[in-house]
Write a structure and sequence with these properties.
- The chain has 72 residues and is mainly alpha-helical.
- It has three helices and no strands.
- Helix 1 runs antiparallel to helix 2.
- The longest helix has 45 residues.
- The mean pLDDT is 89.
């Protein structure tokens, strides 16, 4: 759905002002390449925080807390 919306906006831009639409089409791969390091840093920090959360909750899970205790 997001891709369809982007395609529709690009087509509208192409009809209204085609030089800017062509420039956006040519610049998009470079913008994507520039955003890759930021995505990798975001994925790394997300994994790090998930690991730290699991590590901090490990003693409670070992002692019987968590979801399994409420299911009994």
């Amino acid at each position: 759905m997001k891709t369809l919306f982007a395609l529709g906006v690009w087509c509208l831009l192409f009809v209204l002002y085609w030089p800017l639409a062509i420039l956006a089409l040519l610049a998009w791969p470079f913008v994507w390449l520039l955003s890759l390091p930021f995505r990798l840093v975001g994925i790394t920090f997300s994994a790090l925080f998930a690991f730290l959360g699991a590590l901090l909750m490990l003693p409670a899970r070992l002692l019987g807390g968590g979801r399994m205790a409420t299911a009994r």
